[in-house]
Structures are given as C-alpha cells and as structure tokens.
Amino acid sequence: MILKGYKISxxxxxxxxxxxxxxxxxxxxxxxxxxxxxxxxxxxxRKKGVCGRxxxxxxxxxxxxxxxxxxxxxxxFPRHFVDYNRHPRGKRYGIFSSYKKVEPAFQxxxxxxxxxxxxxxxxxSLKEIFESFISKEVALFDFHGFTRQPSYGEYDLILGTGNxxxxxxxxxxxxxxxxxxxxxxxxxxxxxxxAEQILMNTLxxxxxxxxxxxxxxxxxxxxxDAIQVEIxxxxxxxxxxxxxxxxxxxxxxxxxxxx
Length: 259
What we know:
Blueprint: E1 2-3, E2 6-11, E3 14-19, E4 25-29, H1 57-65, E5 71-75, H2 112-130, E6 139-146, E7 157-160, H3 174-184, E8 189-190, H4 195-201, H5 213-222, E9 225-232, H6 241-258
Parallel strand pairs: 4-5, 4-6, 6-9, 7-8
Antiparallel strand pairs: 1-2, 2-3, 3-5, 7-9
Helix pairs in contact: 1-6
C-alpha cells in the first residue's frame, strides 16, 4: 500500500512504514499494540514482567511521520504475550535498573515468530538505510510511554541510552542535542550524562528508563546511535491531544534538523 508518501505493510501484527524519501532515521513502537482481551485464551501469557500497554504512543509517532519522512516499525502483538523490547532469553540491561529479575520476551513458543518478525523488520529496515547512509549518521528512536514519575524528579520526557552506552557517535552527541532541543521548546527532559549523575540524583541508585533490548542491541550490533524515548502520560491523553500534537511537531522538527 502506498499512502502519504509511504509504502505501508501489515504482516503478522507488525506495521512497517517506509517513506519514498531516503532517511537516516528509524523509529520503533513496541508497546502500543492490541489489547490483551483481543487474544486472551489463545496464547500462554508471560508469567513475569510488565504487561501493560504504553497507550497512545502511536498517535504521537504517526503525527511525526506525517511531518518528517521516517522509517517506522510498530509491533502490535499484545505485550501480555510478547514483549518486543526484551531480550529473547530475558536478559535485562541497565546497571541501575531496579528490575533485575529476568523478564522473558515470550513464553508461548507459538508466539516466537511474531517476536522475530518485528526484529527482523527492524533489521531489514536498517540494512536498507545503510545502503544510503553510514552507521554514524543513522539513529534509532524507540518510543515508549511512562505514567509513574521516577524517584529523581518529574519529567515530560526521559531519554534512555544506558547512560550513554547506546550512543555510538560521541562527536555527534545526538542524545545531548535532542535533550537540549526539547528543553529549548519548553519540555523538562531527563538525560543522565554519566553514571555518576544517576548516583547523585537518586536515593535508591535507580534509573528505571535507561533503555532496554532494542536500543542496546541495535547500537552494539550496528555501531549506531539509539535512544529510548519515554513520553509522560499527559501527552498521551485523549482529552489532551493538542499537547501530544505539539510534541509530535517538535520532534519532527528535530528529525528534519539532523537529516
């Protein structure tokens, strides 16, 4: 399907948007999919780990796509069964994360193919992007939503990079540029510069949103920049769409700036 300058495909719960215009940016949305009730009873539920949706993250990303040509991959399989942002063997990232217990990406073997289709779609997209751009020019933004504010303050956006580990091109410093750009637009943004800043800013040495499987895996494997973008709930409320649209506009402006 070709629509609004995008080639769009829908396969086994994965949505894939590829713009006609070449772009060094890819965005992923792993936790705003279908509800648990849609498939309850057909598959074995994950017994450990967070299962809730990051509700209404996709509308923000969709509005970004409409303003800035960007590759996008959305996983729609309910998180109760498949968590696309977990290591297939349950390994957790982030030395300061309080969630140290293993969280399986899936426990029902029949859902494994849905997990890998999502990540293979990301992999295929990056391969195509690398045909036009070198890795140090490419950036992945993994979009999420958070409701509970962290112990170290109240923020509009939290940028997870494993405390800088998922930023490959240190000279470009895209994480710092992104944070600075958003701050100038009036947002309160948290981006730890290093591990010491986390220790100073928290009582429990806890950075819950410092990035998980997608950003760590892609940055390490492809030697590229990757940022987990956590969006506060107030931007994702149905009765507050103007705030969400403004955020989309501002992020789209940043994407145009770095292309």
